[in-house]
## 1
Amino acid sequence: MTEIDTSVPHSARIWNYWLGGKDNYPVDEAAGDAYTAVFPGIVTIARSSRAFLGRGIRYLVNEGGVRQFLDVGTGLPTVDNTHEVAQRLAPESRIVYVDNDPLVLAHARALLTSTPEGVTAYEDLSLYEPETILEAASRTLDLSRPTALILSGILGHVADYDRARELVRRLLDGLPSGSYLCVNDGSRGTDPDYENAQDSYNETGAVPYFLRPVDKIEAFFEGLELIEPGVVSVPLWRPDPADQEPRPIGQHGGVGRKP
């Protein structure tokens, strides 16, 4: 098994720290605190992204009738993981998680809890292997039936935008009509302070994450039927009634259906 280096900060552990999780080390907390000192709003972005994912899954289960989920670039387990939200509403839901980070793999057991009626599986694969992902997922999911592809905060790690779009297309090509794509990623054009903080972070030698203009995030949904309200800042996507006056942040997302 690949040894996990706890002497340098790790983006998944920093994100876990911002979400209030426990799977991080002092070096990650220090890096996370340094980022929040420059841009305190990053904690809101992390938590709003997770909340959007939950609302998206609830839509997919309750209104889309989806019972199969392929979550690529899973990240560290926190609260309300994909299988927990889906199986709470539809216990028979089947979920395949995909990540190739040894840190995530080490904690994958937390993702493999399941209702007796459903199934969860974990595949140690890279986003850059879409056909292999589909082949592995087919051992758990029936890919002749509608499936929701979840890409939450992962596409910004693909430096080449055209390649990112190609990876999304190849994954969707393996899913049937009636399947869905759920994406949320960091965006440009809403919060200059976030953009400056992230650009500075990318220059530190850490694993970079590239914020993209909203129209480029929208283009991931090309050929799909966007679900209202389309691609918007994540707090504005079907907000819970309790969320009074949600405000835009530099994180955009949406859900689209494959015709």
Note: DSSP finds nine helices and nine strands in the chain.
## 2
Amino acid sequence: MTRWNTSHIPDQTGRSAVITGANSGIGYVTARELARRGARVLLACRSESRGLAALDRLRSEVPTAEAEFRPLDLADLTSVRDFAATLDDFDGDRLDLLINNAGVMALPYRTTADGFEMQFGTNHLGHFALTGLLLPKLLATPGARVVTVSSMLHMLADLDHGDLNSAHSYRRWIAYARSKSANLLFVHELSRRLAAAGSQVIAAAAHPGYAATNLATAGVRMEGRTSTERAVELVNRAVAQSPDGGALGTLCAATAPHMRPDSFIGPRSGLRGAPAQSFRAPWTTKDANGERLWSASEQLTDVHYDFSRAATAR
């Protein structure tokens, strides 16, 4: 895989894609470039105003785009179920691409609508539930893929299986790293279960390296730490690559031919540049860890995958 860029994206005409967190940053770029290649894209965003503004921007940049917006709050499992239920009229029974992109990073401690620590609940559990609820569409679609966006910062921390919700101790960056390790473990276990079921659906992971998005400043902005926010913005301008560059790993994982299941695609250097297979921490490829997280996630979300028929939410 040498110097892969958006010119290598195959024609996506006739394919459909759901992208979470597509109102800005790498999510928006992912939606825009898929639409530019002919895919029908659905921007799934928490904020209606930002989602609709992104939709207008996308249509202005890609006048031929088939695109729409629907609300989705991954920090609220009722919203996840409601969103999945509305997709019956989105490209029929098929779904070619599910891009699990949305996320939060290094927030002060807070919980989701269902009482989960916000980073674990949003970054992992929300996407675990969404993927399970959309599994029937994915299984019914030849060539379907699920791409989950993780981070190289996953290497800061393995999961604490005895304290998934950081109830005993909370450190914002460690909690973020654990949620990103959970993303990789989810992809690993999903790949293993898809293969065991004989499915051709590919589950892969991606990371943006160090990309200049609003993700890094959200936490400090919540706390009113203006000087820290400005410092982060200065570092972004000096070091980070653009959202266009950060989206390349996701787009490559979603569209490159012959993508291997359980791949982890991101900048060659780890921070910026053309996408390639990336190093990942060894705990993210251990079957026992994946099985344990999967079991806990099913229990916490009450979404149960059935690879032979459908995913059900009791």
Note: The two ends are 43 Å apart (CA to CA).
